[in-house]
Specification:
The structure holds 2 protein chains of 2 kinds. By secondary structure, chain A is mainly alpha-helical. Chain A is built from 14 helices and no strands. Chain A is globular and about 75 Å long. In chain A, 47% of the residues are buried. In chain B, 72% of the residues lie in helices and 3% in strands. Chain B contains 13 helices and 2 strands. The chains are: A mainly alpha, B mainly alpha. At the A-B interface, helix 1, helix 2, helix 4, helix 5 and helix 6 of A face helix 1, helix 4, helix 5, helix 7 and helix 10 of B.
Chain lengths: 322, 278
Amino acid sequence: MSTSQPGIRTGPDRAGTGSLTDEALDAQTGAASPTRYREDRPQRKSNILTVVMLVVVLAYFLFPLYWLVVASTKSNADLFSTFGLWFADFSLIDNLRMVFTVQDGVFGLWVLNSLFYSVVSAVGGALLATAAGYAFAKYQFPGDKALFSIILGAIMVPTTALAIPTYLLFARAQLTDTAWAIILPSLVSPFGVYLMRVYAADAVDTSLMEAARVDGVGEIRIFFQVALRLLVPGSVTVLLFGLVATWNNYFLPLIMLNTPEKFPLTVGLWQWQSTAAAGSGAQAMFSTVITGSLVSIIPLVLAFLFLQRFWQSGLSTGGVKA
Amino acid sequence: MPFFVIFLAMIIVPLAYAGYLSFFREQLVGGVSFAGFDNYTKAFQDVAFLSGVARMALFLVVQVPIMLVASLFFALALDSGMVRLSKFVRLGIFVPYAVPAVVATLMWGYLYGPDFGPFAQLAELLGLPKPPFLAPGTVLFSIINIVNWEFIGYNMIIIYAALRSIAPELYEAARVDGASEPRIAWAIKIPAVRPALILTIIFSVIGSFQLFTEPQLLRTMAPGSISTSYTPNLYAYTLAFVNQDANYAAAIAFLLGMVIMALSYLVQLWNQRKERRA
């Protein structure tokens, strides 16, 4: 923390912070603070047309998932010989056994890797974003405005354009093919910093910090013991989206990792798919890829269903597009 | 501040390093030498790169409007209260966002596929030719469909949340005056959520030019339709990891980053100008 200059900011002074549609982002961040959704309005009458439209729309969005579920219950031979949208002989159990045992159970490792990379990146990233956002909101230090403008600009730097240069750098530092290669780049979330700055400006009462200071509490302890607790709801949002972004990330691990035992799920599935498509390897690969895909989406779909409260207010804060 | 150290290390340094690398050239004889802007002039004359950029521009022009119009429409429909089970519908449309792009592409790829894709099976049953989803001319639209499927729900939720935070008094009066729902949507709701729309546009522009996962994976299913330079990102990847030409790949990555930032900046300029006029 830059503790030397506790010149305190009052209000969310956003002048000179660049033009990254401050207004757009601000409008979004409103919901990060306690939600202000209206209660559901009384339902107006729906007519046949809207019902038909709804069914069509839902069918479109759920159709591939339905197919995936059906296909994962089929043996490789049935995939080719039976109609894709209805069940045949039930071989889900066999498929699952195959998924978890093929290549000495490497799939299980992939699940653990995905979990490990995304949890570490998300927790670390959320902490860093929280600390940085808090610092921007509550302290003045030399160059703070310039630095913040740079961070806003960085939101627009495409992550994949960074991936190749990062790879080349890591190759020099001999960091490729290690967990660091995935985690380090995933720790940085300029958008998270932006959100946390806006959030911290409102959530942490400056007079509380003053009071702590009068009592002789150091700035670092103020952050950890006073501010952090108040910042938790905002941090959880950043954390949740960091989790999704890393879990779903494909490009970065694809270029950074060579050892199959270190792959996350996404890259592992890709490898199986290329083997299956090339027609080499085990003949039953397609059903394995399909069942593996089903297994790999279940954790996130469940997480989204159960954590609705968080992401619904969280997505309105903007969120992270993988 | 640990954040700034990592921020610097992970964003500024790679950017600078890409810029630095892009000015060099590795030769079979003589090793690495300074090449000035050679890599850039090469890129601007490189048909593979330019056609990739053009393809992404086409992708952007087709995909982003479809996606955002659909998202806006669904958000308005859900917000209007005319939809039953709106919570269920909202989740149903959003759930693809929780599916990794890799899995989404695999699913759609199999669905498109001529072997055991249900569309091909249906066509066969009816004695029709198999739909050419993965043919060179149509595969771009197949990719557009995948990306739409993944992100319509995500954008819908952002817009929906913005709609929910409009004060109802703003349009209750209009409703009393007998304005129709579409009229209210057009005159009151859409202007009120414009900031959210701008945000989704910017993220969509950034996202589409980075297109990589979908074409790279579909390539395993339709190698004839998707070249290794299909998108600029795929091209940079091929250059760096297949051709081992890190310097040229760095130049491409750097250029791509510049194109995306320029476009996002344009969106903002356009937004500010409109705002001033309003």
